[in-house]
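F.,

This is the one I mentioned.
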């Protein structure tokens, strides 16, 4: 039996260049916690601005770069901009800080991590303290939880903490830096899903630099507040009222130890983007994307997502009178940690797949099953 193009060994065409990779590093190193995405959104807008005709910024900070804003038919290409973080919740009299989650922050990885506390006076450095191994009772050892995790900022009183500019509601992010590992992986905090914002911006750049003429409106959308319930996508979908939405986010690579393929599927970094099957995914649009992958020899993988995708795809699909929506996912290792990893070749493939899928949409294309 002949192999499908999607299963064959394809040559990965490089789209990114030195300028775009410099932007990626700066963009990932910047903090953009849920509800506080402004600095990252400004970076993203500044990068994409030369490649679009105009832009939209909504009330909560979702940014949209638009090509052909006067066109009646509208296609959204979307990622989300926010990252998980923590809120200052309680400051003790002796200067220790307790937290609440802002999104799906992982309590297991927190002990001994360094953090940036974002205040009106600037960044205050802190650490997640944890009792030394010498003083813990192995038979009764407590696991990290929101009840016992705390921050230390080197203060001796609540008053000293507050004089640093720290107050209830300040947001905290882990401290780390973007890096390239073994010339194979991008690694860092918040690749979920600022790598998506990077990829859709690269699609906009390709369209501009190749001087492609698109007959419909294209809305490159970097949504806020995905990590707490797809809220940014929900809001902007009602504003744009698109006909089509192509969403990109990350999914789990399941090849590392302690991953269960029976539960989470057999997906791998380096084997291409993942195309999902599920009720929110419009099957004719999904077939269009698969055909684009096959015609352009772009390797891809498949996943079943059951009731919902858990991504902004759901927000677009069920908005307005229903929007033909599909999800192109990027396999990622160690989600919601500071060492999230994605394969460089997969990033290039996702950019190419979105580009070719977008280019081959016909103006006012009807995606209905029954006509």
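My design for it:
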């Amino acid at each position: 039996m002949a192999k499908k193009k999607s299963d064959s060994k394809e040559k990965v065409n490089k789209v990114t260049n030195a300028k775009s990779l410099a932007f990626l590093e700066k963009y990932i190193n910047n903090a953009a916690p849920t509800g506080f995405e402004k600095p990252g959104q400004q970076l993203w807008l500044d990068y994409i601005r030369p490649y679009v005709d105009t832009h939209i910024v909504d009330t909560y900070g979702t940014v949209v770069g638009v090509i052909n804003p006067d066109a009646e038919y509208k296609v959204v290409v979307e990622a989300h901009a926010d990252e998980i973080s923590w809120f200052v919740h309680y400051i003790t009299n002796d200067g220790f800080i307790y937290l609440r989650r802002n999104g799906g922050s992982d309590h297991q990885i927190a002990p001994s991590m360094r953090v940036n506390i974002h205040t009106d006076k600037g960044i205050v450095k802190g650490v997640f303290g944890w009792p030394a191994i010498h003083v813990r009772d192995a038979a009764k050892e407590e696991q990290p939880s929101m009840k016992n995790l705390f921050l230390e900022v080197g203060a001796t009183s609540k008053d000293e903490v507050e004089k640093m500019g720290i107050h209830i509601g300040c947001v905290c992010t882990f401290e780390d830096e973007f890096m390239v590992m073994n010339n194979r992986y991008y690694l860092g905090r918040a690749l979920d899903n600022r790598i998506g914002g990077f990829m859709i911006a690269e699609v906009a750049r390709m369209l501009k630099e190749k001087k492609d003429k698109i007959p419909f409106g294209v809305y490159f959308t970097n949504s806020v507040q995905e990590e707490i319930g797809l809220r940014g996508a929900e809001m902007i979908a009602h504003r744009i009222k698109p006909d089509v939405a192509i969403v990109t986010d990350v999914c789990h690579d399941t090849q590392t130890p302690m991953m269960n393929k029976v539960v989470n599927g057999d997906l791998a970094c380096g084997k291409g983007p993942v195309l999902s099957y599920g009720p929110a995914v419009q099957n004719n649009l999904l077939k269009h994307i698969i055909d684009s992958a096959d015609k352009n020899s772009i390797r891809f993988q498949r996943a079943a997502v059951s009731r919902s995708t858990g991504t902004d795809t759901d927000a677009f699909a069920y908005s307005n009178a229903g929007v033909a929506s599909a999800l192109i996912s990027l396999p990622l290792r160690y989600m919601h940690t500071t060492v999230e990893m994605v394969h460089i070749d997969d990033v290039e493939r996702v950019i190419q797949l979105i580009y070719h899928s977008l280019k081959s949409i016909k103006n006012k294309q009807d995606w209905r099953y029954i006509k």
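The chain is about 25% helix and 25% strand.

Talk soon.
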